[in-house]
């Protein structure tokens, strides 16, 4: 699961990510799960700073990346978070 900063840095400034995060994010065998609430917050932040064009660019990259999976953050996802996240970015710092 992704945090907002991880998404932004991965697409805009990968040097800010840890080596471990970059290794996972660049591994084509890994599925990247992005909760929709993270995208909503990212859009809000970009709108606040009048950068919606940049948000659209990142959003399109996510939509067309076959490794990226946008998911609602609902009770099923919350319940899975502590048990079955092998190969995915976990909430929190890696």
Tell me about this structure:
With 94 residues, the chain is mainly alpha-helical. It has one domain. The protein contains five helices and two strands; from the N terminus they run H-H-E-H-H-E-H. It has a two-stranded parallel ribbon. Helix 3 packs antiparallel against helix 4. The radius of gyration is 13 Å and the shape is globular.
Features:
94 residues, disordered C terminus, mainly alpha, 51% helix
Could you give the topology of this structure?
Elements: H1 4-12, H2 19-26, E1 32-35, H3 36-48, H4 52-63, E2 68-71, H5 75-80
Biggest beta sheet summary: 2 strands, parallel
Number of domains as seen in the coordinates: 1
Strand content: 5-15%
Which runs of at least 5 residues are low in confidence (pLDDT < 50)? 82-94
Portion of residues within helices: 40-55%
Shape: globular
Biggest sheet: strand arrangement: 1-2
- The overall average pLDDT, rounded, is 81
Q: So how many helices? A: 5
Please give the number of β-strands: 2
* Order of SSEs: HHEHHEH
Helix-and-strand structural type: mainly alpha
Q: State the distance separating the first and last CA atoms.
A: 11 Å
Give me the Rg, rounded.
13 Å
Task: Give the gist of this structure.
With 94 residues, this protein is mainly alpha-helical. The chain has one domain. The chain has helices at 4-12, 19-26, 36-48, 52-63, 75-80, and strands at residues 32-35, 68-71.
